[in-house]
Every structure is written in structure tokens, then in C-alpha cells.
Amino acid sequence: PSRTFHGNNRLLTSQIISHYESINQCKKELPEYFNFASDVLDAWARLEKDGRRPANPAFWWVNDEGQEVKWSFEELGSLSRKAANVLSEVCGLQKGDRVIAVLPRVPEWWLLNVACMRAGVVFIPGTSQLTAKDILYRLQASKAKCIITNDTLAPAVESVLPGSQFLKSKLIVGQGGRDGWLNLKELL
Questions:
Q1: Model-level pTM?
Q2: What is the pLDDT of residues 52-62, one digit of tens each?
């Protein structure tokens, strides 16, 4: 059973099932290139905008203190396009480049995930429990060109920077700045 925001879960579920059944039965062509951000997220945003789909949140985050972030499909699409532009234009990343995100599960974690899909950049998630040694290993093994973290975890990243020869840019998620880091919120 699926959870519903506005009581219309059966319609969406049946549409998704029938779409996949039609692909499996070769009634629909499997696309050569598929991008979740543009092929699904943007399509749902258009359906909502045209009134052909009820307005449900695409993203709804609540922290332990009860603070909420709620984005519609259109808002998530717009924000993810901006974040993809930050990654490609400001950070200079291209399709196939790798990004490591060492973040707690904050809204930007999901935003960056979608932005990477949109830009064709490989998103490598890392938990906030990684040690400096763990971060260095991931940077070296993945040849990541960008790392994204927050103020709390930035010192661990900075301690291993001399060993990360492929890294081009560092993004910080949070308020304020840090020497040598780009601030994601300011760039968005």
C-alpha cells in the first residue's frame, strides 16, 4: 500500500504500473537515453501546471525540531536546474564527472542528487560518519572532481586535500562562508 497526500494514490500507481507493463510487453519503446529529472520530474511538473495531476509535494522534509521544507514538482525542477548549472558552470563539471557528497540528510542532499542526474554527473553519497581516512579513500578511488559537505564536516575534508589530486572544486552547504569553498546556497 502506498501513502497518499490527497487521497488519489490509485490513479498514479495504476499509471506507473501500466507504463512499465507496456514497456515489458514491448508496446512502448524503451528510450535509448533516460534522465529521471527531465523525463519524470519535469513531466510531472507539467501535468500539475496543466491541472492534469493533483498538486502533491515532490519533496517534503521535516527535521527533529519540526522545521519543514516542502517543494512542489515545479520548485524541485527549478532548484535542481539551478544546482545543475552550479555544478556544470561554476564547478566546471561535465557528464561522467564524479561528485562526492558527505552530508547529513538535509534537503540539499536530495536536491544535489536530482541535479547530478540532470547534469549527467555521477553522485557518490557519503554519510556524515565518514572519517578523514574514509573521505580520502573515496576521493582517490573515485577520482571525484568535486566534494560537497557542510561546516561541521569540512575540517575532515580539508585535512585530506593534499592527497586528492583530481579535486577541482569544493562546495559547502550552510550559512556563511569558508575560505576556499563555494557556498551552494549563495550560488543558487
A1: 0.81
A2: 888 789 999 99
> What is the distance between the alpha carbons of residues 123 and 61, in angstroms, rounded to a whole number?
20
Q: What is the DSSP string of 113-137?
A: HHHHHHHTPEEEEE-TT--HHHHHH
- Return the domain boundaries, the chain: 36-186
Q: How many CB atoms lie within 10 A of CB 136?
A: 19
Give per-residue burial for 9-39: e unless 16+ CB within 10 Å, then b: eeeeeeeeeeeeeeeeeeeeeeeeeeeebee
CATH T-level topology, domain 36-186: Rossmann fold (3.40.50)
What torsion do the CA atoms of 143, 147, 153, 158 make, to the nearest 10 degrees? 70
